């Protein structure tokens, strides 16, 4: 029997994780944590009967407590509640399915309690990979990537010596604006950006996919997970999202992982690693597919990607600045307060102003995030 906790259970990854659980008879759910969607969380509590349910606001927690008063769940709130969900005693595996840097503190708390981590929440590794990776080793726990490309790379490395990686070929759908000129990007709207060609994901990552910031975050994520430098990660456009990534080894061999674009596969792989359980999802039909295409990303137009490489090379607190500025920018874009191209301007401005702190502590990371947010509020929100 496996017991899990899910941080971000009401989102795209969270609900798909619960769908995987639904098809197994040996997985229990000890804790669920959500942000604001208490209607969905109530349904999940009734179906999966966790002992702990966390929501962000205490007011929402009070409302939820009344709704589920007939169950035995304990409803908690705030960062304390999130940590309680992450460290719940019965869980042996914690799914990081929350969006954004809010995942850093509960993920670290879970590792310190000896939990294995299945991580989709890439922002946590981008900002705090230098703290997370040593903690994973110190507490003798496992970190299983859930992000589709990193799960693919992890699968390609099965039985291989990671020291023999020459480079990682990180695939990228190209998003809804593939092939667009900077002039054409000037007028794209939120609803255009939310139309991802292959994946049905949360709003923030869907915009990140459109800007190629998602791929930039994934380059940094790959750096931490597989101990490779920025120069060893090459982004390859693969429009169909069928080749989920590949590894080129020092002898020139390239191993790729392929499959239909369905996040339940990497989620299930992380849940039962090293076992593979059967799954009744759609199969990849190579004959129907006919061909797969590859191309170079347009780094001049989609500036999120070179800005990410630059932040990774600078290291220390710079990836936090890159990520925090992007989180702030995407929220404003989704609120229709800035244009698509202004996302790049915000990131670039915040990164160019920042003096790198080497090896930042959690507190320093959170302080840097706060100062980026404050800068954006005073300079960009003034009208
Ligand atoms: N979706 C995908 O296919 C993929 C996602 N990822 C990564 O996985 C992570 C999750 O993405 P995705 O599922 O798409 O995002 P969603 O926006 O769909 O879901 C985010 C989840 O986080 C919860 N949440 C947000 N803020 C808080 C908070 N303060 N406290 C507790 N919970 C909170 C939300 O709760 P609520 O809705 O109740 O407010 C929701 O459950 C991201 O880091 C993303 O980059 C990686 C690869 C693929
Ligand atoms: C499903 C997944 O892992 C996403 O991160 C996906 O990769 C986003 O699409 P892009 O490849 O366009 O960034
Ligand atoms: Mn991905």
Keywords summarizing the entry:
seven-stranded parallel β-sheet; DXPR_C; binds 1-deoxy-D-xylulose-5-phosphate; Rossmann fold; 48% helix; oxidoreductase; EC 1.1.1.267; isomerase; 383 residues; binds manganese (II) ion; four-stranded mixed β-sheet; NADP
Brief synopsis:
This protein has 383 residues and is α/β, with parallel strands linked by helices.
Describe the structure.
The chain has 383 residues and is of the alpha/beta class. It folds into 2 domains: 2-145, NAD(P)-binding Rossmann-like Domain (Rossmann fold, 3-Layer(aba) Sandwich); 150-314, no CATH class. Helix content is 48%, strand content 15%. It is built from 17 helices and 11 strands. A 7-stranded parallel β-sheet has the order 4-3-2-1-5-6-7, sandwiched between helices. A 4-stranded mixed β-sheet has the order 9-8-10-11, with helices on one face. Helix 6 links the parallel strand 6 (116-119) and strand 7 (143-145). Helix 5 (104-112) runs parallel beside helix 6 (122-138) and helix 10 (203-211) crosses helix 15 (318-334). The longest helix has 19 residues, at 362-380. The protein starts with a strand and ends with a helix. The model has no long low-confidence stretch (mean pLDDT 98). The chain binds NADPH dihydro-nicotinamide-adenine-dinucleotide phosphate (NDP), 1-deoxy-D-xylulose-5-phosphate and manganese (II) ion. NADPH dihydro-nicotinamide-adenine-dinucleotide phosphate (NDP) binds at residues 8-14, 33-37, 56, 82, 97-99, 102, 120-123, 147-148, 199, 201-202, 204-205, 263.
